[in-house]
Write a structure and sequence with these properties.
Elements lengths: L14 H7 L2 H4 L3 H17 L5 H20 L11 H13 L12 H37 L4 E6 L2 E7 H26 L1 E2 L15 H8 L3 E2 L3 H6 L2 H27 L7 E2 L18 H24 L13 H25 L1 E2 L1 H9 L5 H10 L4 H18 L8 H7 L7 H4 L2 H6 L9 H20 L4
Parallel strand pairs: 3-4
Antiparallel strand pairs: 1-2, 5-6
Helix pairs in contact: 3-4, 3-6, 3-8, 4-5, 6-7, 6-12, 6-19, 7-10, 7-19, 10-11, 10-12, 11-12, 14-15
The structure holds arginine.
Arginine (ARG) binds next to helix 6.
Length: 465
């Protein structure tokens, strides 16, 4: 098929360039956005008498026919087309004749592609957020079940202080809530209608941009034509949000991998979410977690790709920008695969309460509380810290726990110790005394869960379409 822009050329495009520049293999997934955008544009052109009303309705009907065929799975996409925009326009004219040639009045592929990608990005943000909300639902219900499940908390991957599984899971809930905010922000950035920007300098036709905005359900129209066709910030926001979200998933995966080792033994993955070895009969590998951790790298790569593509591009559109799509789609597809798999895997994971409790009892996780006990008896914290450290050292040498020390032994280190020390440094006490807002005490975590539930309820009530 001759190119729709071939007027000034004296010979056809070289086959090498045709193949090199074609974006239809990856931008065909924009087809629904492209057609919907063109229907709105043609409707407005007819209403404004920029093209005859009869042509506008022929265009709209023709486009609806193409969309129906696409949805029915009967549309044959021409792999030789330059891109999805040229494909749809050429097919339309093939189907409805002369009227089809009026569709592109007052429009450029530059504002057309910006529109299509913005429409797609809105859907992507809403979809990812729906998946994140399901994950959040699960975290909140798991947390309610594990308010009293004591486990060790770590710093430097060394046992630090006792916490609960609910508290640990709610840390991730905070991260995913921030991710939802970020995707909502990316949605809002994408939700601005660029048609009317033309190639770069707007257009001479009396377009009704407000009408197109309304037909396509955008919140606003772009305010500068040059920026309207040059801007891909909304995709960078999506990719940043995707990268940060993958980083959160990856950290969670890393912990689940650790917890399901023989050494930790605090989580057991469901057989449905683990794989075996072709040689070692005993193996049960946490592949879902490892792959999610691994795929984080490719999403970071997608962000770097687009940042680098955009760096140094002069205004306005440059063909470099066609490279935005594969990075964006890859990150989106990756999230859409990782999130439900991760959620299902987490849902089926068996957390071993006894093993977690036993593990929390080792490694002197109550040493801070031993010092705090002395502070309660009037000892300055720095001295109390030293006394507790001396007692830890003694226990390490003797292979004992702090609770194994007799009152005489404790008093030899400091006279302020009394018999109530044993209750004060029990794991339960260590957790329940940390009851400030944001702490691991069951009551504090219960309130944190309630706040998150309310937050989620409000998000769902005011959900972006
Ligand atoms: N396929 C192109 C892209 O994805 C469409 C825009 C082309 N515009 C142009 N002036 N060549 O960016």
């Amino acid at each position: 098929m001759p190119k729709l822009w071939a007027g000034r050329f004296e010979k056809p495009t070289d086959a090498l360039l045709d193949d090199f520049q074609s974006s239809i293999p990856f931008d065909q997934r924009l087809i629904e956005c492209d057609i919907t955008g063109s229907i709105a544009h043609a409707t407005m052109l007819g209403e404004q008498n920029i093209i005859p009303a009869a042509d506008a309705s022929a265009i709209v009907d023709g486009l609806k026919g193409i969309l129906a065929d696409y949805r029915a799975g009967t549309l044959v996409i021409d792999k030789g087309a330059e891109d999805v925009h040229m494909f749809v326009e050429a097919l339309l004219t093939q189907r409805i004749g002369e009227a089809g040639k009026r569709l592109h009045t007052g429009r450029s592929r530059n504002d057309q592609v910006a529109l299509d990608v913005r429409m797609y990005a809105r859907e992507a943000c809403a979809h990812v957020n729906a998946l994140l909300k399901s994950l959040l639902d699960l975290l909140l219900s798991l947390s309610r079940q594990h308010l009293d499940t004591i486990m060790p908390g770590y710093t430097h991957l060394q046992k630090a202080q006792p916490i609960t599984l609910a508290f640990h899971l709610m840390a991730y809930a905070q991260m995913f809530m921030r991710d939802i905010n970020r995707f909502e922000h990316a949605y809002a950035e994408a939700d601005v209608m660029p048609l009317g920007s033309g190639a770069l300098a707007g257009t001479t036709y009396p377009l009704n941009r407000e009408r197109v905005r309304e037909l396509l359900g955008f919140s606003d129209v772009t305010d500068n034509a040059l920026d309207g066709v040059s801007d891909r910030d909304f995709l960078l926001s999506f990719l940043s949000a995707a990268s940060i979200c993958m980083m959160h998933l990856s950290r969670f995966c890393e912990e689940l991998i650790l917890w399901s080792t023989n050494e930790f033994g605090t989580a057991v993955m469901d057989d449905g979410f683990a794989t075996g070895s072709s040689i070692m009969p005993q193996k049960k590998n946490p592949d879902a977690c490892e792959l999610t951790r691994g795929k984080t790298g490719r999403v970071y790569g997608d962000l770097m790709t687009l940042l680098t593509v955009m760096k140094g591009l002069p205004l306005a559109y440059n063909k470099d920008m066609q490279e935005d799509k594969e990075a964006f789609f890859d990150a989106y597809d990756t999230l859409v695969k990782c999130l439900p798999t991760f959620t299902a895997m987490l849902r089926s994971t068996d957390f071993r309460r006894e093993a977690m409790y036993a593990s929390a009892g080792l490694g002197f996780t109550n040493a801070t509380d031993l010092a705090d006990y002395l502070v309660g008896k009037g000892v300055p914290f720095r001295d109390a810290h030293h006394v507790s450290g001396v007692l830890v050292g003694k226990c390490v040498r003797e292979g004992r726990a702090l609770t194994d020390l007799t009152l005489d032994e404790l008093r030899a280190a400091h006279p302020a110790f009394d018999a109530d020390v044993y209750d004060a440094i029990s794991l339960e006490a260590c957790v329940s005394r940390r009851s400030l807002r944001g702490g691991p005490a069951p009551e504090a975590v219960r309130q944190s869960i309630s706040r998150a539930e309310e937050w989620l309820k409000q998000r769902r009530a005011g959900e972006q379409p």
